[in-house]
């Protein structure tokens, strides 16, 4: 939902404090999960069909979009982009050196050799992000390659009606599905020699860009990825200093 209002407060760990006010309505609007003011100026709310219709007529409300659930989707990214050369995209040049790439997916498994930070320079000084610390994901796992990792699940948790603990899901950036790690490595990472699948198909693992940085925003969980969680992750990415398009391989009906 997109609207005009004066102030917001949003963190990934608690509910917003200042919901927008609509004095022309005969009902109150309670925020379901998120407020945004960077990617868009809007908020997420639970409304009946009648309430949604009434709110859509209020001056300043530009659009209202149902909060859809999406799912990770694998694709042959390098070939689709015309970058199927086995040597990768400009591997020996400074192409994309220090560029910060945001990944919105199921998280990351940072111990993978492909996320080594050898031969990388220090993290750019303009970077403002942080690395989440959790029981199964130490903040020390972030390095000069994976420079930040965060989670976003308020809408997902509300939809399930249970806490992440009750759902037996890790609310850390740890990738328990595998898709986020795969998606990240189609774009950014280190070369790995003698790579194989259980000893088969031995060779050298390569990516498209070897000198860029990775920022992880975990927005997808066991039962999907909600638009409002995705949007607030984008808000954080803008504030953090992500520079290029988000790695985003999630399917669903897109409405703008």
TrEMBL record:
Domain of life: Eukaryota
InterPro entries in the cross-refs: Peptidase_S8/S53_dom (IPR000209), Peptidase_S8/S53_dom_sf (IPR036852), S8pro/Inhibitor_I9 (IPR010259), S8pro/Inhibitor_I9_sf (IPR037045), SBT (IPR045051)
GO MF annotation list: serine-type endopeptidase activity
Keywords of the record: Hydrolase, Protease, Signal
Residue ranges constituting the Peptidase S8/S53 domain according to the UniProt record: 97-244
Inhibitor I9 domain location: 38-73
GO biological process: proteolysis
Family membership: Belongs to the peptidase S8 family.
The protein, known as: Subtilisin-like protease SBT1.4
Organism in which the protein naturally occurs: Sesamum angustifolium
